[in-house]
Write a structure and sequence with these properties.
Layout lengths: L2 E9 L5 E6 L8 E4 L3 H4 L6 H21 L4 H20 L11 E5 L8 E3 L2 H23 L17 H25 L5 H4 L8 H25 L5 H23 L7 H29 L5 H30 L4 E2 L5 H20 L1 H6 L1 H4 L31 H27 L1
Helix pairs in contact: 2-3, 3-4, 4-5, 5-7, 7-8, 7-9, 8-9, 9-10, 10-11
């Protein structure tokens, strides 16, 4: 999980180095294609030029992904988009002859085992490709939030430029859009027996959770930008913090009741979301307390103190949740305190102590009020997934009727047969 550009190398037994990656943005494990003999399997089924391009692009994605561990994001994205365009053409042309003719194989990067996925469904291949595009967008967003100058030392003061943060938000919206497309346009085409065999990180509940939490993290980054801005009001900051709570609450609910959430990638994801939910709720109560404290009535001050004390408790709980997330396999490390949480980790305990001292006499008089935590205001959510559409069909990329395909196939067969006859004649002489 996380971006390979920022990681600690830990030397264990037998001097084997283990990379402990840093997670600012949650990134699912990347997959890479496994080489398949498409030319042989699709001979006579699709045009030779189409098959050659399909095979070339698939092999390119595999080689680049394996050689770089997925860090060559721009190169991979370009190849995936071109491959997806070709795949879309095959599907939209309703080239049913391809269905079941070729085995598409994928494996998890860094996993020495055999292919994890093997299928013959074109829509399943499209799902895997778009899932990889979403994972790459999340990976790039993660790398933008980890400045290179600070990646070698956790003690460095972390400063992420405003431009990097805005770009990261755009990437999170793009990733959310990819995932929503998978849910709405691809999974709906699968019968229950195929859906049940999907790997954990491609189950609908996990895809939905990833999509929503990407929006939550985008809101978290926006809150950080608001904290740094002198123009942002307390009301704006409170709204962003409350929206963040709603996003992470929705994401948690998507996964918490599912069996898939009890193991593997989904288990780590749900721990990440719980950590972020607690941080968001601490921020929301802090800013709600500041807004409430501006009132003149004693009840306003009591309510504000309740908010500050709740924020302090939630902040402490969030640190434990972060620890649990990091230890959940695969082991990761959390980023050092930075941005809005660095600001709040200092302000919340300080304000909670100061305000409880200031209004201590009111708290004694309003014991009942202390037993009831104020409700956070409900806001309409601002961020939406970036809409994703399949690429346009390339003219002529899959043209060719069955007669032409058969003719191509017979020509290949004739050439191969002539070569065999020549070899046999040479042996006879």
């Amino acid at each position: 999980m996380g971006c390979a550009t920022s990681a600690y190398a830990v030397v264990g037994r037998k001097n084997k180095k283990k990379i402990v990656q840093e997670s600012v943005v949650f990134v699912p494990q990347l997959r890479a294609p496994v080489q398949s003999d498409l030319q042989r399997q699709l001979k006579g089924v699709a045009p030779k030029t189409t098959v050659d391009r399909l095979s070339c692009l698939r092999n390119q994605i595999q080689l680049v992904a394996e050689d770089t561990g997925g860090s060559a994001i721009s190169e991979l994205r370009t190849a995936l988009e071109e491959y997806l365009s070709l795949l879309t053409s095959l599907i939209k042309k309703k080239n049913d002859g391809m269905e079941g003719c070729v085995e598409f194989k994928w494996k998890t990067l860094g996993d020495g085992r055999r292919a994890e996925l093997c299928f013959t469904n074109l829509w399943m291949e499209m799902l895997t490709v778009i899932h990889m595009m979403a994972a790459l967008a999340l990976t790039e967003a993660n790398s933008l939030m980890i400045p290179k100058a600070c990646s070698d030392s956790s003690n460095s003061v972390r400063v992420v430029s405003s431009d990097c943060r805005r770009d990261a938000v755009d990437l999170l919206l793009k990733a959310s859009g990819y995932l929503e497309f998978c849910i709405q346009e691809i999974l709906t085409r699968f019968p229950p027996d195929i859906k049940s065999k999907l790997p954990d990180d491609m189950q609908e509940s996990v895809l939905q959770t990833l999509s929503i939490q990407a929006l939550g993290q985008g809101t978290e980054i926006q809150l950080g930008l608001a904290v740094d801005s002198q123009k942002a009001t307390l009301s704006v900051k409170r709204r962003l913090a409350c929206e963040q709570v709603i996003y992470f609450s929705q994401a948690y609910q998507c996964l918490s009741g599912c069996e898939v959430g009890s193991h593997g990638c989904a288990k780590k994801l749900i721990r990440f979301i719980y950590w972020k939910f607690l941080e968001a709720k601490a921020a929301a109560y802090y800013y709600h307390g500041l807004v409430t404290d501006k009132g003149n009535e004693p009840a306003c001050h009591v309510s504000a103190v309740c908010c500050f004390l709740a924020a302090a408790e939630l902040l402490a709980e969030s640190k434990k949740a972060c620890f649990n997330f990091c230890l959940s396999p695969p082991v990761t490390r959390a980023p050092p305190m930075w941005g809005v949480m660095k600001h709040l980790s200092q302000k919340i305990p300080e304000v909670a102590f100061r305000k409880s001292q200031t209004y201590g006499y009111l708290l004694e008089e309003e014991e009942k009020a202390m037993q009831c935590l104020p409700e956070l205001p409900d806001f309409q959510l601002s961020l939406r997934p970036e809409e994703f559409e399949l690429p346009e069909i390339e003219t002529g990329s899959t043209e060719g009727n069955q007669t032409h395909l058969l003719s191509e196939h017979l020509e290949d067969y004739s050439d191969n047969h002539d070569d065999e006859d020549e070899d046999n004649d040479e042996l006879d002489h």
